[in-house]
Amino acid sequence: MKNIDSNTHVRGESIYVDDIPVRQGTLYACAYDSKIAHGTITKLDVSAAEQFPGVVRVLTYKDIPGINEIGGIIKDEPLLAEKEVHFQGMPIALVLAETDEIAREAVHLVKVEIEEHHPIVDPREAHEKGQLIIPTRTFKLGETENAWSKCDHVLEGTAETAGQEHLYIETQGAYAYPTENGSIRISSSTQGPTSVQKTAAWVLGVPMHKIEVDVTRLGGGFGGKEDQATAWGVFTALGAYLTKKPVKYVLDRMEDMRMTGKRNPYVSDFKIGISKDYKILAYEATYFQNAGAAADLSPAIMERTLFHSTNSYFVPNVTATAHSCRTNIPPNTAFRGFGGPQAMFVIEAAIAKAAEELGVAPSVIQKANLLQKEDEFPYGQLAGGNEAVDSWVRAENLYNIEQLRKEVTDFNSKNKLFKKGLAFMPICFGISFTKTDMNQARALVHIYQDGSVGISTAAVEMGQGVNTKMVQVAAHFLGISPSRIKIESTNTTRVANTSPSAASATADLNGKAVSIACNALVKRLKSSAIKKLGLSASCSIELKEELVVIDGKKSDLGWEELVMSAFLDRVALTENGHYSTPTIHFDKAKEKGHPFAYHVFGTAITCVTVDCLRGRYEFDYVKVAHDYGSSMNEIVDRGQTEGGIVQGIGWMTLEELMYNKQGRLMSNALSTYKIPDIYSVPKELEIDFLNTNNSDNMAIFKSKAVGEPPLMYGIGAYFAIRDAVRAFNPSANPPYYAPFTPEKVLMALYEGQTATSRVLKDVAVGRK
Ligand code: MTE
Ligand code: HPA
Ligand code: MOS
Fold first, then answer.
1. Torsion angle, alpha carbons of 432, 433, 434, 436, to 10
2. 641-667 confidence digits (pLDDT tens)
3. Main-chain phi, psi angles of 300, to 5 degrees
4. What are the domain boundaries of the chain?
5. What gap in Å lies between CA 112 and CA 332, rounded to an integer?
6. Whole-angstrom Cα distance, residue 458 to residue 392?
7. In the prediction, which pLDDT does 768 show?
8. Cα–Cα 20 to 30 A to 581, which of 179, 343, 440, 450?
9. Active-site residue (options: 542, 708, 743, 751)
């Protein structure tokens, strides 16, 4: 089944926040944001802005009727700065004006004076100064202290990954209007409608039932709207509440890049101990997470970093320690993978370093340590199956690894100025919110009198195809055509207390809730059928292909007639399904438990060709064997896999997020921040649907979650480039730093005199 949104997307008819027809009297909001990363406000004067023609009101923290606080996990983030500013881009005042243009112009008339303090942008500096968001956490398995002496090789190093801008096509935004008696309805581009509702209620000082949040769909979220859509939703609610007029605020691209948080950059130290038969006996990692100026989701992201410290490997002795470091850049946030990719890069760097020391390909070490069924993760859960090994072996065989290796070796022996590099990237990602209580969802299913069906869930469609999957689930359980089913907007009044659509778990949680509601309805409809047809209660009845099927034989009683007769019998045709993931638990005091419903695995082989004169590179292919469980929608799942891989490659290669020492974002526009385009996509993307069927598979239809895991295949891009660089310059030892931009590749290629002179000589004599 193709994505149910594809027709309206292609015609440009799909509705995003900025497409909602505006109501009469709508005001437009624009924030004045701090130009200083760290300081104390000594003067704040909004009078000139307020007097600007067309400006209706300018709000500061003093106008907030409730509590000036938007932090989701920790209450450490004011909506509007009071005395202190903590990052460049921090909102200080909010202009409300008759037009968008007037609001954006008047913002420049806000007068703010700030006494500057030293800004911190480096997480290690924050750590040294004790600037931590939460106490440090450590996950332990075995004893690393005693293990080093048993290792034949022990290596230490550092690894670093930069942040990543979400670059959702639809920027952050919201539109709110007052309804009766001080209530507000907010249309928001958010992954977390309940977060927007709860925070707006808190800031306005009203009960949650006064705030209704509605989401039709997002033009992308990628984690950037799990928590960080909240500020903009609350701003519009605040404006609407105070002026009693509709208020709209949609950020332009540069505002969005400047003011919102991104993937957390990480700086990490590692130590790895290996036996002579390539077994990893011990691994230690210390992560310095750059959280930015407030907690946002960083504590949960840090936790997932710890969960994924050993990627898809079994290591008997592990000590993984994480510090969440407070710096003066915008609060960083969820981004596809949620701290997992950052951890995986570190262990892959450690393995690469060990392999270089031992003079073998990293894949030799990778393969020797893959997780097997019942191997223990550092957090106590056991691997549910052998998918790590199975996907690796499948990739090797299906893509003929010997042939691929030979192609690379042959090419490299024949070419001096172009070199190919190859890397394996296995992945392992835990499915469930790491916070156990978030793993719940509800679905409200109405069957209308004409047999059409309307479904509301907590799932937010952001391009990942979850609405299509919800239609599939309902069609299956009700036994009707998908064309009868409509997925309603995600709305806090219809489905309350929702978890955000995140953690790749949206289809699982909401799909299970839909199935529970549909099954309850089917049970009632079956009773109606028995009554209507005068059957004995013992016969077997199914609803299939829009017909009542009795003891395996199709009857004449169709869906529409059945629904109408049930209605006339006064049977309830509405049901609310509730699902909470069974078996999962986690004890934070011990840092042990069973936090994930299941794990997703897979293996990618990446090949790159590096132009060794210019430092540029092109990806020849990424060939993947991915564990889909049993995919319920191969079109959607393939799209998620391809998109994730390309986004991961972007993070590893092009997307260089740079803050200067003053905490100013230098890569603040699409001219300085490069994302992958069609030319940087691998020439070949081959994806094999590895069908796995484990007893631990708790996915809806056993179709495993797919949203985030494929991004981590992109990490192979760094290591493939590294392999090519070393084919050209064997003494190169570039830092384990991503993104490996062409400039950095060029420097690595010519690291050390010998290589430079060799190439220059070759070029001089006209050899290729
Ligand atoms: N795919 C598209 N097209 N757009 C998105 O914003 N977000 C990703 C992933 N795939 C995203 C996407 C992220 S970060 C997550 S957590 C999942 O989708 C969320 O949806 P799911 O839980 O339905 O997989
Ligand atoms: N993933 C995404 N979002 C989350 C998680 C998670 O594991 N935990 C809390 N919010
Ligand atoms: Mo995804 S980072 O869990 O929104």
1. -90
2. 999 999 999 999 999 999 999 999 999
3. -70, -35
4. 6-118+166-259, 120-164+262-378, 394-433+590-768, 440-580
5. 25
6. 36
7. 39
8. 343
9. 708
Q: Residue ranges of the chain with pLDDT lower than 50?
A: 764, 767-768
**Predicted pLDDT at 753:** 56
Is 708 catalytic? The answer is yes
State which fold the 440-580 domain adopts. Answer: Aldehyde Oxidoreductase; domain 4 (3.30.365)
The CATH number of 6-118+166-259 is 3.90.1170.50
Residues in the chain: 768
Tokens 């223990």 correspond to 376
pLDDT score recorded for residue 763? 55
From CA 33, how far away is CA 85, in angstroms rounded? 10
Count Cβ atoms below 10 Å from residue 290 Cβ, excluding itself.
27
Beta-carbon contacts of 359 under 8 Å, excluding residues fewer than 6 positions away, are none
| Ligand 1 interacting residues, C-beta cut-off 6 A | 220-223, 336, 462-464, 466, 501-507, 640, 643, 705, 707-708
Domain covering 120-164+262-378: architecture:
2-Layer Sandwich (3.30)
Q: How far is the CA of 356 from the centre of ligand 3 (A)?
A: 34
Query: Per the structure block, which two tokens stand in for 414?
Result: 């024949």
Indicate the DSSP class of residue 376.
B
* Cβ atoms of residues 172 and 251 within 8 Å: yes
Decide whether any atom of ligand 3 lies within 6 Å of the 191 Cβ: yes
CA distances from 275 to 53, 144, 639 (A): 74, 14, 40
Domain range 394-433+590-768, its CATH number among 3.30.365.10, 1.10.150.20, 3.40.50.720, 3.10.450.710: 3.30.365.10
Instruction: Supply φ then ψ for residue 170, to 5 degrees.
Output: -85, 120
Question: Distance between CA 275 and CA 413 in Å, rounded?
Answer: 32
Which residue, judged by its Cα, is nearest atom 7 of ligand 1? Answer: 222
pLDDT of residue 767: 46
